[in-house]
Fold:
Amino acid sequence: MSESTHRRLSDSTEMRESSDRGNRLMSATIAVIAVLAALGTLFAHHRSIEALTSKNEAILLQARASDAYAKYEARVVRYQIAQTLVAANVTGTPGGKRRLESIAESEHKSSTDVLTKAQALEKQSEEQDVDSQHVLRSYEILQTATTFFDISIVLVSISTLVATRGFFNAACALSVIGIVLMIVGFRP
Structure:
């Protein structure tokens, strides 16, 4: 064989081996990014469910607080009615007056307990609502990270097809951004 043919054959072999290494690198890169995208999707879905559960709990607590406030208002009205009847001396008997005073005192005491419970439920509802907002932000960040990973997969595929390193570098940069967003999205 001539030296020129031998050199061309050697160059051709090197190019094929280099191409094989490049394809393996691209395939491995796509696989890693795909796993990151799948994990991002999994964690985002968990956060979505957590946000919905937290929001539902806030709504339930608010409904319970509203019920408790309604009970409080009913007891205050009963207290005021009993006080008015005592002041008007409607019963006309000392036993009846004591009975109305007892009812008024009982309604007044229980109304403060109910008010305290209503306020506690409302506070829990507000805390749960704030928690759902934090979890929802986390979900949105994880979704964005997953989008960056999806775009990275496409860019690596394009890089493989057009044999241009620029798309591969852009994909790696987007993947790094996706990883950072994923880490930030894990924060409570």
Observations:
- The longest helix spans residues 3-88.
- The chain has a mean pLDDT of 85.
- The chain has three helices and no strands.
